[in-house]
Design a protein that fits this description.
alpha+beta, six-stranded mixed beta barrel
Length: 224
């Protein structure tokens, strides 16, 4: 019966078959496009924020006490909580002056590694932050000197290598720092916040005269 119908109306049968194929193709195309869009948004979010699920900031954008870290870490389902402190500053190196943003991070911060890769030098070692009893204006020795990590493109533009000494304008005055490492972006969109200078959190809190203060808490939660 089907063959007789096909032979009796070949053009109508051909158009019917074509319309079914186009309809199925359109449904499959929409499904693939939606899936690709979701994956693209997930990759963009990961590139911008790292492997981070939530962020805590003050409602008015002010800084707050880092004591909140221990309380958030005790919440059920929280895997990691990483504090951050940001400070606008001026970088002086090789006769150049560049306005930039210093970011104080926890040395264990895994989302930093997710957005950047270490290409030269090293990151901070535990226990290397400045001594709390260091007097203002006291010359910095090798043990007490602030260690800083720079984004590789910024360092290249200013001719800065690992081991070089640079200076940052801070509330306590020009602060000399030793460049211990260079990092490169995993994705070009990761520099949305102009993050290219990284301090150990304790160091930046001290030189910026913000002891115990943070302005952002980044949180990873469990899969469940």
């Amino acid at each position: 019966m089907a063959w007789t119908e096909l032979c009796s109306h070949p053009m109508r049968s051909l158009f019917t078959l074509a319309s079914v194929a186009i309809g199925v193709g359109a449904v499959v195309a929409i499904h693939c496009a939606s899936s690709s869009a979701r994956q693209a948004f997930e990759q963009l979010h990961t590139s911008l924020t790292g492997d981070i699920d939530l962020e805590i900031v003050a409602r008015d954008g002010s800084r707050f006490d880092s004591d909140i870290v221990s309380h958030v870490g005790d919440v059920a389902g929280v895997v990691e909580a990483f504090p951050q402190l940001r400070r606008a500053t001026l970088l002086y190196a090789n006769g150049n002056r560049v306005a930039t943003q210093a970011v104080g991070v926890d040395s264990r911060q895994t989302d930093l590694a997710a957005r950047y890769r270490l290409i030269q030098g090293r990151l901070w070692n535990e226990g290397t932050e400045l001594a709390d009893d260091k007097e203002e204006g006291e010359p910095e020795n090798e043990k007490g000197r602030v260690e800083v990590v720079l984004e590789a493109q910024l360092a290249g533009n200013l001719g800065i290598d690992v081991g070089a000494t640079v200076a940052f304008l801070m509330p306590r005055g020009p602060t000399r720092c030793t460049v211990i490492g260079l990092v490169a972006l995993q994705s070009p969109v990761g520099l949305a916040d102009h993050e290219n200078v990284f301090f150990h959190l304790g160091d930046l809190q001290q030189v910026a005269r913000l002891p115990g203060k943070i302005d952002q808490l980044r949180i990873r939660i469990g899969d469940d």
